[in-house]
Design goal:
Elements: H1 3-23, H2 31-46, H3 54-75, H4 79-105
Helix pairs in contact: 1-2, 1-3, 2-3, 3-4
């Protein structure tokens, strides 16, 4: 496995951790966290040329945009809109997880996996 693939896989995991962190904010998302989220846009876009990770990264980009809209809505006091956006992001995340599970059942091995 290449070092690039390892780094990209690590970024996907880190993005998931950031998304989970944002999910925990109920009264406003700090600007520093929003900036961190924006930084992931470029990282996920760069993965679009990766044959094995492009679909996952594409879905994560859609989730990222929903989380940015969520943050904007929550920070401007639009709690109902924010709630809907978070529900949409969670649904997209769940669908992405199911896709990954399906890929693994079909024989996909995550980078670094030693499974036979």
């Amino acid at each position: 496995m290449s070092n690039v693939r390892q780094a990209r896989t690590r970024r996907l995991v880190q993005f998931g951790m950031l998304a989970n962190k944002i999910k925990g904010y109920r009264y406003g998302v700090p600007k520093s966290v929003i900036a961190e989220l924006v930084d992931y846009r470029l990282k996920l876009t760069a993965m679009q040329d990766d044959e094995e990770l492009s679909e996952i990264a594409g879905n994560d980009l859609e989730i990222l945009e929903l989380l940015l809209d969520y943050s904007k809505s929550l920070n401007s006091g639009e709690k109902e809109k924010a709630s809907k956006l978070m529900a949409e992001a969670i649904a997209k995340w769940d669908a992405n997880d199911k896709m990954i599970e399906g890929m693994m059942k079909d024989g996909y091995k995550p980078p670094g996996s030693t499974q036979a």
